[in-house]
Design brief:
With 205 residues, the chain is α+β, with helices and mostly antiparallel strands. It folds into two domains: 2-82 and 194-203, 3-Layer(aba) Sandwich (Glutaredoxin); 90-191, Glutathione S-transferase Yfyf (Class Pi), Chain A, domain 2, CATH 1.20.1050. The chain is 53% helix and 10% strand. It has a four-stranded mixed β-sheet with strand order 2-1-3-4, with helices on one face. A hairpin with a 2-residue loop joins strand 3 (55-58) and strand 4.
Amino acid sequence: MIILHHLRIGRSIFTVWQLEELGIEYELNVYHRDPATFRAPEALKAVHPLGKSPVIEDGSLVLSESGAITTYLLEKFDNDHQFSPPRSDLQSWANFTQWLHYPEGSVFAPLLIKMLLLRSDQVHEVLEDFSAKEIQLHLGHINNQLGTHQFILGDDFSAADFGISYVVSLAKRLGQLEPYPALEAYLERNLSRPAYQRAIERAVE
């Protein structure tokens, strides 16, 4: 059975969502952030040296990194390719893989900088300018890719939508989505899915 180490108020809720979409049995170990520092508790380091989340265990395998976890879960459980194209369709699979890793690889960093700037009482003009331009660049790119489609790769939901939903939700929390009503609608559509609602119910128990 998959064991997911889930840190409250963070990206690992999107891994809970994946497990619910796949319809597999899993055990959820929930951790709470330190109220003073908002950092993960030391107990997570007993699971993985970085002490971060999400982390899954599957037998002897201990796996971190959101994209790697998604890929592993798809390889093991998505045998009918409901959430990803088959590798035999190389072009579609490559495009899917690009969007699967894009949120963590490119989009998250400027959003993180923006979040830290909002928490700071100091002015950092270089970082402000960098994060503002990068956020605009990436949200525009995601918006253009979405176009008139329901989901990031077309009109069918895919595993690429997990990560894109995460960074779009973070952008919303940081007050960055006002110029992008299509992304607002995209996020609402994804977070209204029954599997996401089940994930929320289970993760906050």
